[in-house]
What we know:
The chain contains 17 helices and five strands. It is mainly alpha-helical.
Amino acid sequence: SLTDPVTVSGQVLIQRKSNRWSKLKSEEINGSLVRDLRQLAGKSVYVQSGSTAAAAIKSLNDNTGGRFTVIEIPYETDKIISMVARRMIDFAVCDENVAIVNAMYNPIIDVSTIVSQPVGLAWGIRKEGSELLAGSINDWLQMIKGSGLHAILYSNYFRNENLARIVKSDFYTLNTGKMSAWDSHIKAYSDSLNWDWRLLASLIYQESGFRHDARSFAGAYGLMQVLPSTGRHFGIDVTSSPVNNIKGGVMYLRYLQKFFEDKIPDGNERLKFILAAYNAGEGNVLDAMRLAEKHGRNPMLWDDNVAYFLLKKSDPEYYNDPVVQFGYCRGAEPVAYVSEVLARYSGYRNLIP
């Protein structure tokens, strides 16, 4: 079954403007473009195989006597639009919302000719046994639309004037395979951790957004948000250069690896404890482990065990417990930190070989 509509979108014709389009008046540009679909007679129109756009343009063509040829190809819509921009094909059809985004960084593309009127776009969920899920999603959609959040999110993704600059950036991962100016250093230092470099990159993004001059209210500095005192402990001035900041952060991670090596035998579980300790300190993680053991849960498992009691360390009943040695902790932060770093790492693995 379907949720309430998330947004609406119709289908539009993708076509290429004249090479001189930037020097032409709008009426001159329009005069060279297809504005009446009958002008497509004898032409070929490309569309993504099995898409809603394919169904729409084939239905239109059938209803108008098969004036043009519809060719379905097994490519993502972005690639098909790029093929129009690069003169590999002349016409394509796709959803309007996707077309608008692509037109921002392919200004030679025109997406103004309507093929079909807008219809609702919704999420599909399992038909049976999903009534509570459907109700929750619909309530959430109603809330964000009523609060204006939906409009803000839509504008950020589909009306963002900065998108062209982002896509043309040297660090637009989909185009370049790069994430930051520091990739080579991240790769080099990740080896000493025996980590996938994309995992270390995810942590660094979480800490600083790859900003080498980032500073926190607590005095943490640089790409890996290392306290200068922590750097001095390892004999490194973490404020002297971005490379030294990475080196200092990695040395602290190596210390945490060794610290938890005997305490958490499973490597995947151990990683979660290391990430939490990097964010909140190993003392707070140890407190949560002791609380977990005291309350009959597994002190060597993160989810629903140690993470649960790290969250509880903001509650006086728990941070005043005799087994707790490091007092209050805003536990929601390290618990979210672990989840976000690992989720981003999963995304990086899908995007970057």
